């Protein structure tokens, strides 16, 4: 008898996700029509973009929850994670689980958004063609089991859409339609692409400080700027627990600036920080993650 092959479910096309992305992008374009424009709406969008992308996703969902790169007072951690929920990129439990899947099997078939399947697959195709394993509730719970006992995170997971609706109603009550168009639709779409570029462009363009086996992650300077420091992705894949992603002098990491301020204020503790060490040709090739600021060069 021949060897029986294990059944591997195929990705399933989701017309609902196509409609969702099309409607959100279409409504975001209304921002460029005169009836939806106001300077206060522009300012609101810029502030909320920084808050939801940098404070919420980069700091709250990613460096704090997913990788436990730092410790925060519970109330402050809740604030950052709540702000991350406003990015509308799923609730914190599913977001954390899928990102941990990505690190566990980067750029393989087990990676939800493997860049080996192409730029656009890594960018957004993986959400249009949904793989059952990557959205399986039991697998998600296994990868994010440390969050399941926290009632606040479970609440955000269940109600992140309703939270966005309430937030939109608040913006409408204060600033009318322009605040909704710029503060919800345009802001969410921009944060989407800022985040997705880490999965696509930062696995395609740029350079590497650390060579990693079968890993396509790169340091892409323009994604580093657009995504508030997340574009130094090769550094991050080499040292996932590091709270600092920009490790060389020119690698601007704006989210790290916030973390550094929190550390100075005594609000961020037990920081995990990576350091790179050059070889004889001054080429960065190795490093380590340590706690605190004082480190000794690696042997």
Give keywords:
299 residues; mainly alpha; two-stranded antiparallel ribbon; disordered C terminus
Quick gist of this model?
The chain is mostly helical and 299 residues long. The chain contains 10 helices and 4 strands; from the N terminus they run βαααααβαααααββ.
What does this structure look like?
It is a single chain. The protein has about 300 residues and is mainly alpha-helical. It has a domain at about 10-205. Helices cover about 55% and strands about 5% of the residues. It has a two-stranded antiparallel ribbon with strand order 1-2. Helix 4 (about 90-105) crosses helix 6 (about 135-145). The longest helix is centred in the middle third of the chain and has 49 residues, at about 150-200. The chain is globular.
């Amino acid at each position: 008898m021949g060897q029986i092959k294990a059944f591997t479910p195929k990705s399933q096309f989701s017309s609902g996700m196509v409609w969702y992305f099309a409607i959100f992008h279409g409504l975001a374009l209304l921002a460029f029509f005169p009836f939806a424009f106001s300077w206060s709406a522009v300012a609101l969008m810029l502030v909320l973009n920084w808050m939801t992308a940098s404070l919420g996703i980069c700091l709250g969902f990613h460096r704090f929850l997913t990788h436990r790169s730092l410790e925060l007072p519970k109330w402050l951690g809740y604030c950052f994670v709540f702000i991350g929920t406003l990015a509308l990129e799923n609730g914190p439990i599913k977001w954390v689980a899928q990102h941990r899947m990505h690190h566990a099997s980067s750029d393989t078939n087990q990676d939800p958004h493997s860049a080996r399947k192409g730029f656009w697959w890594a960018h957004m195709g993986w959400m249009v063609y949904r793989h059952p394993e990557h959205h399986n509730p039991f697998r998600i719970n296994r990868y994010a089991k440390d969050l399941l006992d926290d009632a606040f995170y479970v609440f955000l997971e269940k109600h992140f859409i309703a939270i966005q609706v309430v937030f939109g109603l608040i913006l409408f009550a204060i600033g009318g339609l322009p605040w909704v168009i710029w503060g919800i639709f345009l802001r969410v779409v921009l944060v989407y692409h800022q985040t997705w570029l880490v999965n696509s462009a930062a696995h395609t363009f740029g350079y590497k400080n650390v060579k990693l086996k079968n890993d396509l992650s790169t340091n892409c300077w323009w994604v580093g700027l657009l995504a508030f420091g997340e574009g130094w992705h090769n550094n991050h894949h080499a040292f996932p627990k590091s709270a600092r992603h920009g490790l060389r002098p020119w690698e601007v990491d704006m989210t790290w600036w916030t973390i550094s301020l929190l550390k100075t204020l005594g609000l961020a503790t037990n920081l995990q920080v990576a350091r790179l060490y050059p070889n004889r040709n001054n080429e960065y090739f190795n490093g380590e993650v340590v706690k605190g600021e004082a480190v000794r060069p690696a042997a």
